[in-house]
Amino acid sequence: MSAGSRIFRRGHRPVRRHTAELEWLGLHPGLQGTGWGTRLLEHGLDALVKDGVEAVFLRTRSGTGLGGFYRAHGFAERGRWPRAVRFADGGYRAEVWFTRDLP
Ligand SMILES: CC(C)(COP(=O)(O)OP(=O)(O)OC[C@H]1O[C@@H](n2cnc3c(N)ncnc32)[C@H](O)[C@@H]1OP(=O)(O)O)[C@@H](O)C(=O)NCCC(=O)NCCS
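^ inputs. structure came back:
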């Protein structure tokens, strides 16, 4: 497994070229809590700004605690879809939507 990865997808339609979605940000468990998540995220956001992106969107699952990480990095919750995620054991989680204006 790699140490960590980050995937942004730029909006492809002309009316969404000024936006991007953070599709994935994750670290190897042994590196979590060491500041590398912040570095990976902020370095990626800096690159997007240089490329003319004005806003970033992402989605998380409720119950993961990840909302706290993204709020600490300037993202605002824009809504949530209850029971959008269903697990094999029958449990549900909401999908939570966040955005951050850049820079
Ligand atoms: C979320 C993640 C990218 C953060 O990276 P990191 O290097 O661990 O975080 P950092 O060390 O940069 O922490 C920065 C701050 O965010 C906080 N933070 C980190 N992870 C957090 C979490 N899950 N919930 C709330 N706060 C969190 C830290 O406490 C720290 O705050 P502080 O500076 O006030 O102490 C990383 O922990 C990770 O990959 N987690 C697993 C992600 C995952 O499971 N993805 C799949 C979801 S479906």
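The chain has a mean pLDDT of 97. The chain has two helices and five strands.
thumbs up if we can close this ticket
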